[in-house]
Design brief:
Order of helices and strands: EEEHEEHHHEHEHEEHEEEHEH
Structural class: alpha/beta
CATH superfamily of the largest domain: P-loop containing nucleotide triphosphate hydrolases
Distance between the termini: 40 Å
CATH architecture of the largest domain: 3-Layer(aba) Sandwich
Helix content: 25-40%
Shape: globular
Strand order of the largest sheet: 5-6-7-3-8-9
Number of strands: 13
Number of domains: 2
Oligomer: single chain
Number of helices: 9
CATH topology of the largest domain: Rossmann fold
Length: about 290
């Protein structure tokens, strides 16, 4: 059974069109990454699928039912972008409080260990750092052994170590058969976790495929080389960065660019050609869409 579905969903906020005829289906066991810039419609889509908002038109389903019904949300876990924790309660007390709402919650010790929170169990949430609060908020989404979890920017404000610890917790849940939909501005996070990427821009789905397939949608390669000094103008370069003597060039025809470099007589070393990163593919997709609309 499809766990969550949006069918030709449109959502308006006054005159603003947040989502434009979006369709999406999430199957059991998937880990889906929603990728897009601020204002793209990612959070609006999550809010519709979790029953926090109604579509202006179209239909949304959660476990085949209306997500606004409490019965539909009993097997759902959510961490929104902004969460509030009772400042006077300790972390362990917050976990106990949330656990009391479920018939078979995840054991507290297991939850705390999975998300690296054991050292915080006796700390009042009001005294936690922003990153620590975020870790607690993400962990709480998993208390009720949900069948599907929606994580909206789950690692915002976390350092690298804390982020990777949460990644491990999310992977562990998915490896046990859980389903995850996450939004993120950290593109390496999508690449590290998701098998399926949905690129959203301007309220529409621009791409819905594997990470590799999204990269291949834009025939761009990254050519890196070391040159002591500036490069001459070369045809076919769509983007360029320089870090000291290291140049990084984006091109749709890497073979031609390498031939042009050789025939130009440039004394370069450490040549490297690789596929675009998901970030580069994402930027190209969104810019192409924006140009098509203008």
């Amino acid at each position: 059974m499809t766990l969550a579905r949006a069918i030709d969903v449109t959502r308006r906020y006054g005159d603003k069109l947040a989502l434009d005829a979006v369709s999406l289906a999430v199957q059991p066991g998937e880990l889906v990454g929603l990728l897009g810039p601020n204002g793209a419609g990612k959070s609006t889509l999550v809010n519709l699928l979790t029953g926090l908002r109604r579509p202006t038109s179209g239909r949304v389903e959660l476990f085949g039912d209306d997500p606004r019904r409490p019965a539909s949300r009993r097997r759902l876990g959510v961490t929104p972008q902004e969460t509030g924790l009772p400042a006077s309660l300790r972390v362990g007390e917050v976990v106990d409080f949330v656990s009391a709402h479920y018939d078979e919650p995840l054991p507290k010790g297991e939850l705390l260990d999975r998300f690296g929170l054991a050292d915080l169990v006796r700390r009042q949430t009001g005294g936690l750092s922003g990153g620590e609060k975020r870790r607690v908020a993400v962990a709480l989404a998993f208390v009720g052994r949900p069948r599907i979890v929606f994580l909206d920017e789950p690692t915002t404000g976390l350092d690298v170590q804390a982020r990777r610890l949460l990644w491990d917790g999310i992977r562990s849940y998915q490896a046990e058969g859980g389903t995850v939909v996450l939004t993120s501005h950290y593109l390496e996070e999508i690449e590290a976790l998701a098998r399926r990427v949905v690129v959203i821009g301007g309220g529409r789905v621009l791409a819905d495929d594997t990470v590799d397939a999204v990269r291949s949608l834009v025939a761009v390669r990254r050519v890196s080389l070391s040159v002591p000094g500036p490069l001459p103008e070369l045809p076919g370069i769509t983007g360029a960065e320089r870090d000291g003597d290291r140049h990084h060039l984006l091109t749709a025809d890497a073979d031609r660019l390498v031939r042009d470099l050789v025939t130009s007589g440039i004394a370069f070393t450490d040549l490297e050609v690789r596929p675009t990163s998901l970030e580069e593919a994402f930027l190209t997709l969104t810019e192409t869409r924006a140009a098509a609309r203008s």
